[in-house]
Amino acid sequence: MRTGSEPATARSALRARLWLSLWGLFWAIFGTAAFALVGRPGWAAACGVLWLVATVDLTMILRHIRQGPHYQPGRDVPPYPPADGGPPPFRGPPRHGHP
Length: 99
What we know:
The chain is built from 3 helices and no strands. Helix 2 runs antiparallel to helix 3 (41-67). The chain is mostly helical. It has helices spanning 6-9, 14-37, 41-67.
């Protein structure tokens, strides 16, 4: 159910993003070095750009983790205020006008 406050209460799995960013950073560094050694400057430049993007992403992730629970609420903080009437009733699958 959408409440309209999703952008203000959105959560991100920062630890998972941290590990994925580190994994990408490792492969970008490896790719840059490997392609530079075999004489493929185009691919080395592409991996270098990816290295830069992964480094910026890693910096932002670490910044958000250090900012604390304001940007990464714990499990006791609900993702959005509860709806007043509860979930809508289940009406079954949609019916099509096929014979």
